Amino acid sequence: MMRRSIERVRAFFAKRRLDRELEDELAAHLEFAIEENLERGMKFEEARRRALVSMGGLEQAKYKHREARGLMKIDILLYDLRYTFRTLGRDLGFTVAAVLILSLGIGANVAVFSVVNTLLLRPLPFPNAQELVWIAPPPTKCGLSCATYSTDAYDEFRTGSRSYQDVTGYFAFSNPDNMSLTRNGEIIPATSIDVIANFFQVLGVHPAMGRLLRPEDGLNGAPPVIVLSNPWWRRQFNSDPNIVGKTLDINHQQVTVIGVLPASFDFGAVFAPGTKVDALTPLNLYGPPRNWGNIITMIGRMKPGVMLPQARQEAAAVAPRKCWNNNQPQSCGSYKDGVVPVPLKDYVSGRLRRSLIVLWSAVGMILLIACVNLSNLLLARSTARSKEFAMRAALGASRMRIVGQLLTESMVLSAMGAAAGLGLAWMLIYWLAHQGSVALPLLDTLRIDGAALAWTVLIAVVAAVLFGLAPGLRTASGNLHESLKDSGSGSGQGRKHERLRSVLVVTEVALASVLLVSAGLLLRSFLHVLDVDLGFEPARAAAINAIYDDSAPTEDAGAAKLTAIFQQMIARVEAIPGVQAAGITDYLPLGGNRSWGLPLPKGIQAPKGLDGPLVYVITPGYLRAVGTRIRGRDFNWDDKLHSQSVVIINQSFAHFLAGLAKLPGGDALGQTLDSGGQPLTIVGIADDVHEENTESNTTWQIYYPATQTGPTSAQLVIRSSLPPAALANSVLTALRSLNPKQPASEFRPLTTYVDRANSPRRFFMLMVASFAGLGLLLAAIGIYGVISYTVTRQTQEIGIRMALGATMGRVQRQVLSITLRLAIIGIALGAAVSLAAAKLIASLLFATSPWDGVTYVAVALALLIVALVAGYLPARRASRINPMVALRAN
Amino acid sequence: MSPSKLDLLQGTLDLMVLKTLSAMGPMHGYGIARRIEQVSGNEVLLNQGTIYASLVRLEQRGWIGSNWGVSGNNRKAKFYAITTAGRRQFEEDTAYWRRLTGVMDRVLDSNDEPGILPEVNGETA
């Protein structure tokens, strides 16, 4: 059998030689036969005739021989392919339209598949990524401080758990531009994250160059070292191949470069989407961070074979043993129920699952619309070609053979569409991968990979069958006689086709309307999000990370020095023309955040399970600069270290306190809170500020004056009447006049924070909206195609009617009414499907009902208008029909 | 290749060709076709052309070989000869064919009375 197969393949490639031999052999055969017949005394003509008869047909003999000899199926396929290319080449307009439609449908699908694959399907880019877990409490109100652990708690968990190969973490409260690199006299801002020394071992990241961190790098007295991210090494150090071992001047300290990370690992892409992290530095667990409270996020790598429920059970058992600070026995047990491992992948991209599924469905619908459209085009063509196929059937082609030929055509179209679509997808993916400001994880690892290619092939084949089968069967099943007689303008076949085409168009309009409704709902949600009162005014405000040196021998001297520095800084900046207000905070809204515990009026017991307010350390003028309104008073420079301790709290916290302590008049303003024995007087009530995102409710907030409580950094916020970019230079000059070490940090408009917070929503909204637009366009093309085909088919009929006195207007109205009927049925169907599917999308909406009437009406109107325009062109053509010409034509 | 009704017919022609070649020595296509017609007493309605499909099949299986040569009346023709593997195959096929026809004969000649199946009492067989 094997031998025969090989022979067949060989024969397939030696076709020409074997055919020639067969010709010779058959010729010889014939001559032998004629000779024998002549010997029997026949005349030559008769001898030859008899010989041919007993041969049983030369062509048939050849066909049978070839069938037995080679790979007939492939021969047929090749023949069909050649024929397909010839016919498609002849009908270039059709081919281009079909390939274009398919490439849009397939391209969108491949691009979205790549996104879905990267975010949902593919494991995280770490070896054995399924072992990695993110260890955090269930979501709480107090932001990052409640999602992190103290160093003592980390140590206890790491040594007390058996489920993990190892547990690591990183410092969660780094501000952007927290590092100043001095190079060739220039001070360059950069962002680094402190990670626990075993961070890379746990994740399984290997260096591109040099080495990564070792345990000794994180100990007291270890020489300072730094690991560079791959992009920073390329950008800032020109890909210096000898960078390892060199020392850098970072924050005015000599720091040794020990290694460069591989391009495949981007800290920001996994743990802080939308931000760039330039370098990673070791976190010294046994230095000052010991007493900083909750600062570490935990990531664990489970032992092989350990299952998640097992790890969860153990974590729940270990959690109560953990202490916030081992020296404060009363802090032990505070993590009870607050240690839950979840798969790292769920933490990174779990929230996006629903959005991605909606996006995936949207492109699926686009592909369906494209297929429906193509079916329509093919039907129109098959009507025109029905005589060709009837002729072939008459000449002996089997039905299978004709369907095969049509499917070959579909496959070829689909393959061309897929190739073009792949190009489109590649461009889209390239663009997406370079959207650094979109806060979606892993975007920069987007690429067209093997899975995406396989997906392309799959959808191309499915599409070809989808759009090719109906017209193929329809054509092949046609009655031979009918087709040969049917002139294409009468009844019969033509009318049957038209019904099928109407069904297709209705489907198309319905699909498009589902897409448009989804896009409309998402758009309205997005607009509502933009309308949210953030509690501050991001427009015309910008922030810069200001560097200061408040080192002083005593706490008093430090506070005095800091006050002086900040006061001067703000005075100089406010003197710049165009600056309306300036102030300093250590955390910006929508930036980072932390909390310090829950201060309450004296004598009030803290209710169980409440999280503390988010803490901001600010200077006088900050709230005005950021645009947050206050009732009461702002801090002022007279709030000194030893004067009365003052705080400003936000409305929700004030409301809670008033209720809890039954404050007179229900007002917290002027009341005193007790913070570990220290009285804090509430001097102002500020508006609630959105601290983590623009959508969810705000939590409690408390502001401390920088003059009394040391800030962790200084984010200088400036409000001006000029665009921020115009001020950047003068602000930097002002800051440098005070501190020559101030790096050229980025001057970031506060709107960038808002934009980043909104970016996932904007991203999905724009994607779905573009797909809806595409769907609308395809539906319009579909409507146009069908109506204009109907008009062409009815040319004669219209001509007769006009000859009998129908006016142009009447003909137009009639054609338009057909269009409208199709559109309305489609819209109604689409609306019904949308209503049913609304639940799917409901969780993605913001302040918008999934049954939002405005959206539905707007979509219906938009579709009607598009349908009318698409139908008007053929209607106009119909009304211009010259009866004489039309009647003579056939 | 799955067996089908056609296969039996194909098989018979192939077997006839093998028999002819093994009995007569090397022959060309026309000769084989005529020989089969004559031996079968013209009872086989053979489209002579189909012999070539059979020949190419047998050759690809390695049961016959071919060479261009010159015939008795000085014509160029392709001559086929059976190979050792072909002889073995021929013997196997012949034995198989004999068995099959024997069985067929017995089955068709048997003249038992109808109703030889035993009664089944209310049970589903």
What does this structure look like?
Chain A is α+β, with helices and mostly antiparallel strands. Helix content of chain A is 53%, strand content 13%. Chain A folds into 4 domains: 2-70, no CATH class; 138-338, no CATH class; 352-531 and 756-888, no CATH class; 548-742, no CATH class. In chain A, helix 6 (92-121) packs across helix 14 (399-433) and helix 17 packs antiparallel against helix 25 (853-879). The longest helix of chain A has 44 residues, at 750-793. Chain B has helices at residues 5-24, 29-39, 50-61, 84-109, and strands spanning 27-28, 64-70, 76-82. A 3-stranded antiparallel sheet of chain B has the order 1-3-2. In chain B, 27% of the residues are buried. Chain B is of the alpha+beta class. At the A-B interface, helix 1, helix 2 and helix 4 of A face helix 2, helix 3 and strand 3 of B.
What pair of chains forms the biggest interface?
A-B, 31 and 25 residues
Write out the CATH superfamily name of chain B: Winged helix-like DNA-binding domain superfamily/Winged helix DNA-binding domain
Radius of gyration of chain A: 38 Å
Tell me the strand percentage band of chain A: 5-15%
| Structure class of chain A | alpha+beta
Radius of gyration of chain B: 20 Å
Give the topology.
The complex is a heterodimer of chains A (890) and B (125).
Chain A: H1 2-13, H2 15-39, H3 44-55, H4 58-69, H5 72-90, H6 92-121, E1 132-136, H7 151-160, E2 164-171, E3 179-183, E4 186-190, E5 192-195, H8 199-203, E6 209-210, E7 225-228, H9 230-236, E8 247-250, E9 253-260, H10 267-271, E10 279-282, E11 296-302, H11 308-318, E12 340-343, H12 344-349, H13 353-394, H14 399-433, H15 450-476, H16 480-485, H17 493-531, E13 541-546, H18 555-574, E14 579-585, E15 600-601, E16 614-618, H19 622-626, E17 630-632, E18 646-650, H20 651-660, E19 672-675, E20 678-686, E21 701-705, E22 714-720, H21 724-738, E23 748-749, H22 750-793, H23 795-803, H24 808-842, H25 853-879, H26 883-888
Parallel strand pairs in A: 5-10, 7-9, 16-21, 18-20
Antiparallel strand pairs in A: 1-11, 1-12, 2-11, 3-4, 3-8, 6-9, 7-10, 8-9, 13-22, 13-23, 14-22, 15-19, 17-20, 18-21, 19-20
Chain B: H1 5-24, E1 27-28, H2 29-39, H3 50-61, E2 64-70, E3 76-82, H4 84-109
Antiparallel strand pairs in B: 1-3, 2-3
Helix pairs in contact in B: 1-2, 1-3, 1-4
